[in-house]
Amino acid sequence: MKRLALHWRILIGMALGVLWGIAASSLGLIEFTLDWIKPFGTIFINLLKLIAVPLVLVSLITGVSSLSDISKLSRIGSKTIGIYLMTTVVAVVMGLVLVNLTEPGKAFSPEKREEFREEFASTTTQKSTDAAAVEGQGPLQPLVDIVPANIFGSLTNNGAMLQVIFFALLFGIALITIPPDKAAPVNDFFEGVNLVILKIVDFIMQTAPYGVFALLAGLVVEFAGEDPNAALELLLVLGYYCLVVIAGLAIMIFVVYPALAVLVGKTTYKKFFEGIFPAQMLAFSTSSSAATLPVTMECAEKNLGINREITSFVLPLGATINMDGTSLYQAVAAVFIAQAYGIELDIMAQIGIVMTATLASIGAAAVPGAGTVMLVIVLQQAGIPVEGIALILAPDRILDMIRTTVNVTGDATVSMMVARTEDQLQPPKETARV
Fold first, then answer.
1. What span, in angstroms and rounded, lies between the C-alpha atoms of 354 and 286?
2. Tens digits of per-residue pLDDT, 69-105?
C-alpha cells in the first residue's frame, strides 16, 4: 500500500491535534494533554532548532564558496536583499490599505478594551520593557550586533542567527580567495557535513506529523482552558481584526507571491503551491521560519528545482530578515489599536509605520512571538498607546502561525526569482516530493 505523502500526514496531524484539544477541554483531559502529549511537540521543536544553526552555517559556507568569485556573490546578494525589501514594503502598504478601509478597531466597546487591558497588563509591561531596551540602543547598534565577538557563543544561540550568517559569509568569501588546492579539502569537508545534516533533517521530518499533533493539541488546550467555548467567544470579539489580518496575509500568499513566481520564476500557479506546500504546513504549525528552514530548503531544491547554490544563500538570509507576514501584521495591528483608542493617524504617521515596520521586520527573530516585541516599537514611533497591545494578544498565537506561513512562502518566492535571473532554476523531478 502506497504511503501518504509527508505533507498530507502533517495536515492530518494538525487536524487531529485541534480535535483532540477541543475534546480534551470538554472531557477534563487538560492536565493529561499538557503533561503527556504537549512535551512531544516541544521535543519536535527542539529537534528542528537543534539542526537550524548547523544547517545555516554549513549551507551558507558551501553556497558562498561554490559561487567561484566575489562579484557573483555581490550580484546575488544585492538582488536578494533588494527583492526582500520590496516585498516587505508591499506587505506593509497592503496592511495599511486594508485596515483603513475596514476600520476594525472601531468595533471595540470601551468595556471590552478595559477588560483586555487588565487581563494582559503584566504581559504588556514585559513587552514594553523589552522594546524599550531595543529602542534605547544607538542607531548603529543593529550593525554592531551582526558582528560576533565570539562565534562559538553565537553558535549556541538560535537568536544570534545574523551573527552566524555573517561568519559563514566571511568564511565562504575567504575560501574563494585562497588558492584552490588549499580550499579544496575544506570544501570537501563542508560538503560532507552538509550531506550529513540534510540526512538528519530527513530523519526529523519523519516525526513531523506526530510533533505537529502534539503542538496543536497543547495550543488548543491552553487557549480554551476548561471551557471549550471560551476560545470561540474570544475569537468572535476579535474576529473582525483577525479577518482583516488574514485577508492581507491571504492576498500575499495567493496573489502577490504566485504572481511573482509565475511572471519571474516562469512556473505555474499549481506547481508553485505543490512544491512549497509541505514547508507552508510546517511553518503554520511551528510559527518559526528558522525551525521550518530545513524543510523550506528541501522543498525549494527538490520540488521547485532551485539550485542549491541559490537556496543555501537566499533562504537562510530570508529566514532572518524577510518577515513580510510580520510586517503586514504590525501595520494592521498598529492602526487597529489607534482606531480602538479613537486616535486618527495622518498620512505622515502611516508612512512612518511603513518605514518602522520594514526595518523592525529585519531585526525580528525567526521564532514565535518575536513580532509582538517589535510591534511595541512601531506603536511608540506612531504615538499610539503601548498598552493597546493588550487588545491583540489573545488571538496573536493563531495569527502568528499564518504570518509565518507568509514569511516562508515569501522566502521561497524570492529564491525562485533570484534563481531565474541567475539561470539557476531547473525543472524539478516529477517524483521528488518532500
1. 27
2. 667 677 887 888 889 889 988 998 999 999 999 888 7
